[in-house]
Amino acid sequence: TFAAHHARVRLLLSEEPEFTRTGLGGYAGVLAHLNQLKPRNGVFRKEYSPDGVPENGSDPRKYFSGENAGRIDAITAQLNQWQQEGTLSETENSLLRHDLVLASNRVANIAGTYGHHRSKWGTSALASLELRPTTLLNGHRTDHIVHQGPAETVAPLIEADLCYIDPPYMKRQYAANYHIIETIARGDSPEAVGVSGLRPWRDQYSDFCSKVKIRDAFRMIFNSAQCDQFMISYSEDGLLTEEQLTELFSEVGTVSLQKIPFARFRSNAGGQGGTVMEYLFHIKR
């Protein structure tokens, strides 16, 4: 859901929305209003801060300070109220939830993903959550369309000269590791499961994270998207090797490959260093 909010912000907005129906004086006024809301008790303070008592009996979690978790709850409640009352347009709602996700990321007590929180507080996690205005790409075209759903499901709706595909490439499911972002983006109050408080995420399971299903997932896109060319980003750390990918993509058309070395991501000092080779495949039917 956050990806859809982000896409609307980047593709459908070339200037700040007016937020007329809020009566708060535009984007700056809306952010000022949200930033001064008093913290409240909600799902984030209860399930994801040391001030809470998780419903399933787990020890209190430390994803956010109690103050910041309460502020996420307060801002979410206001956005939900505005959305229910019809105060916000779709793009206005997406912009504010996008801003809340970014603000929450800046103060999250994590080591890269939301699979679990740190055991000790990081310095940034003790700062105060603050919504900041997003700098929009002024002057670009906004006659774009944003679809949300599994790539295999959305592919039949795509008619374009070129289709860029950037799938997950490891077994780790994004939906599980970014569950907090999804909850903020949706503005809901899901059950918090297990020690880490994961939201139920099976509705967002990706076949690209399965070595058994990944080939058919690619084929579904190739067979249904109305595109003559495809660009696919992948990694040497992925489930399929360079040779396996080339063989698969050759079913569609002529394949070329560019290899680009990148510094390997390290979430903490104990992570794996060095470089990783990223693959950029081009397919022409």
From TrEMBL:
BP term (GO), one: methylation
Record-linked Pfam families: MethyltransfD12 (PF02086)
Documented EC number(s): 2.1.1.72
UniProt keywords, alphabetically: Methyltransferase, S-adenosyl-L-methionine, Transferase
Statement: the UniProt record of this protein carries the keyword Endoplasmic reticulum: no
Enzymatic reactions: a 2'-deoxyadenosine in DNA + S-adenosyl-L-methionine = an N(6)-methyl-2'-deoxyadenosine in DNA + S-adenosyl-L-homocysteine + H(+)
PROSITE patterns in alphabetical order: N6_MTASE
Record keyword Iron-sulfur present: no
One MF annotation (Gene Ontology) recorded for this entry: nucleic acid binding
EC class name: transferase
Protein name (database record): site-specific DNA-methyltransferase (adenine-specific)
Organism of provenance: Aliiruegeria haliotis
